[in-house]
Amino acid sequence: MCGIIGMISNRDVAEHLIEGLKKLEYRGYDSAGFGVLNDRGFVVSKEVGRVAVLEPRSSEAQDAKIGIAHTRWATHGQPTQINAHPHVSQNGRFMIVHNGIIENYSVLREYLSKHDFKFKSDTDSEVIAQLIAHEYKNNTMQAVREALSRLKGTFGLLILDREDPGSLVAVRQGSPLVIGIGDEEYFAASDISALVQHTRQVVYLNDGEIAELTLSGYRVSNFADVTVVNEPTEIDWEIEEIEKGGYEHFMLKEIFEQPQSLKQTMAGRIIPDEGSVKLGGITAIEEDTLRRLNRVIISSCGTSWHAGLIGEYVIEELARLNVEVEYASEFRYRNPVMGADDLVILISQSGETADTLAALREATSRGAHVMGVCNVVGSTIAREAGMGVYTHAGPEIGVASTKAFITQVAVLVMLGMDWGRLKGHLSNDQTCDLVEQFNAVPDLVRNVCDQSDTIQAIAGEYADCRNFLYLGRGVNFPVALEGALKLKEISYIHAEGYPAAEMKHGPIALIDENMPVVVIATQDPVYEKVISNIQEIRARQGRVIAVATEGDKEIRQHSDHVIYVPEVNPIFSPIVNVVPLQLLAYHIAVLRGCDIDKPRNLAKSVTVE
Ligand code: F6R
Fold it and tell me: Which of 294, 335, 399, 585 has the greatest number of C-beta atoms within 10 Å?
């Protein structure tokens, strides 16, 4: 959700804090602020709106060598200037920025009010600054620890003490935080995208840890003040990967990057010469464990949940394993029957989604095997899962997920092929054949990207519509869900995804000449059935945009528009078929003048419940 960054350096920090915030803006963008400390004391600047509204060069902010900054996605209190971070304690001594939620803030606020603390904002976060001031006797770190012992909830927290310009305190409890080790300068940030321009050496904090950063080094300790040693890690992202690289929007860039992302996902894992799949990160699942497995449960949120639904079809088909897919937000609060014969796969681009992380912990506590499928290397889910497969899609900055989705599906397909062969459901020849076909998929995706202009022209006819229906069957039903989600999140058009045959059980009532229906009608065993569903729409004057297989001339008679995709084995078809839906949503949203990379009310990484 919110993004935070802090820095202690010999350089002026204000400008760098704001540059860092820009890289974190996809985490939240309703208001932003920074606070620095110089000879004149704290200088705070905060505004409603995007990071760009902040002015780093104001004369008051000059000569500050330490500071913290925040880009907000409101949880408690509206996006106003007063509610924006940083928050400063009433006595002016402690300044904080906070990512997360303080669940017991109202109790603390009441308590502090009784001790004559006056609050300026409606936020939960302000209590933290006040509480530290309240707990302070003569030692800041002691006051911080006392305050932490009273906070309930989740926090990634940066703290400055006006009387100690040489020290920045970072705390992690449930919200991601990473320390950057520079050349005689240190950083703390919600994620590494804010750090890559300064350093490649990072240290991930774990829950319950505090880092004290000074110009001469850093110390990590737990809440009980016992020193903890977390080894530094090298970041392998390039700066260009988090820039737009000539594209108008990150989303478009990321759609076009998909062939390359897929190749990265497959590299070293798909071995066409041997006809095999090698997934190094999951060798802990031994062959006999796999044979004993009662069930695979996939748990995730949003687009990653859609990838999980595709995984259900693919893994059942290829490996004949029983698969269930659960919303992580529901799974975590159920009382699931689960144990040592179950494998729980957590799918998460960010690896930080609060509900997915909670689902992981629930599964671990019940003795299930757990596996992560994450994009962000070193993220909390990736680290806590112990085993897993990185998608290696590269940094995804656009809030609407595209290349992360496609690579998640690719990982699930590889799991299906690997386990299918291990369990004897796929012969060596069948696996060889599938591997060869799968290896060609990135180029097929490139072929669909090349049709962006055709799709843009179709978008022009539908940009003013108020509702859309998306239909698909079998393994392409989740693709319909994903197409609808892409459209609604970036264009604000109401859209629903349905299994095509379900239409008769209700949604058909919506169909008239104003209702565009996007139908995935590629060649697969249910093609004829989907054509019947299209006829039912046409009989009610619905307008059909079909996604069909190249060479299918017949479908033209039944549709207003056809977007052709290359022929592909149906088991891999979601990877190809989702691309025109991403592009359709993108072009419609552009035509409607929407903010593509930062859609209203959304944030990239949902680190609060
Ligand atoms: C939609 C989208 C979200 C995420 C969801 C889970 O385009 O991006 O629905 O898929 O918030 O995020 P991760 O995968 O980071 O756990």
Answer: 585
Active site residue 2: yes
Q: Tell me, in angstroms, the distance from the centre of ligand 1 to residue 301's CA.
A: 6
Cα 482 from Cα 269, distance rounded (Å): 26
pLDDT at position 426 is 95
- How far is residue 547 from each of residues 379, 521, 566, measured CA to CA in Å? 36, 6, 10
Residue-level pLDDT at 238: 76
Residue 353's nearest CA partner among 1, 24, 609, 607 is 607
For the CA atoms of 565, 569, 575, 576, what is the dihedral angle to 10 degrees?
-10
Residue nearest to atom 16 of ligand 1 (CA): 348
Atom nearest to 300 CA in ligand 1: 16
- 258 Cα–ligand 1 center, Å: 17
Tell me the backbone φ, ψ of residue 35, rounded to 5 degrees. -140, 135
Query: Starting from the edge strand earliest in sequence, which strands make up the sheet with 467-472, in order?
Result: 494-499, 467-472, 516-521, 543-549, 561-565
Query: For the chain, how far is it from start to end, CA to CA, in angstroms?
Result: 10
Check pocket membership of 603 for ligand 1, CB cut-off 6 A.
no
Cβ–Cβ under 8 Å, residues 399 and 599: yes
Active-site annotation holds for 604: yes
Low-confidence ranges of the chain (pLDDT < 70): 56-58
Which of 303, 375, 609 is the pocket-test mutation for ligand 1 (most atoms within 8 Å of CB)? 303
User: Which residues lie closer than 8 Å to 84 by C-beta, 6 or more apart?
Assistant: 31, 32, 33, 46, 47, 48, 70, 72
SS3 463: coil
pLDDT (0 to 100) of residue 56: 67
Nearest CA residue ID for atom 11, ligand 1 = 302
